[in-house]
Amino acid sequence: MARGLYAGRKLKRDRQRLRWSDRYYKRRVLRLKEKSDPLQGSPQARGIVVEKVGIEAKQPNSAIRKCVKVQLIKNGRQVTAFAVGDGAINYIDEHDEVLIEGIGGRMGRSMGDLPGVRYKVVKVNNVALKELVRGRKEKPMR
User: Fold this and answer.
1) pTM, two decimal places
2) CA pair distance 134, 31, nearest whole angstrom
3) 51-103 residue pLDDT tens
4) Residue 9 — φ and ψ, nearest 5°?
């Protein structure tokens, strides 16, 4: 390794070359996260409910988590989103317009015992799902 008085240029050049072996640098510079992300880097996205699905929880839990398949408006991709709250799935029908956001797992991954579900439903037809579940608001008929 060069350590001399005039080795600065070589050190800098080597650092630039070897940077590409750092996977986080590579992913960041090539923007691979935004390219592969269905929301394309944005915090939330709107979509249309395609179908309701029940997803089995991972071991050691046993439950059927109520989720919906959503087709995003901006790019037509399909994602699965979790309906948060007791009986929340009853307020979501097919062809409703929903707003989804990340579910909060680390590095954009799925959370807890939900396999392959990275998003949650926030609003249904522009009404907060939380308010519907609490009974404070009613869903508008479209």
Assistant:
1) 0.82
2) 40
3) 999 999 999 999 999 999 999 999 999 999 999 999 999 999 999 999 999 99
4) -65, -45
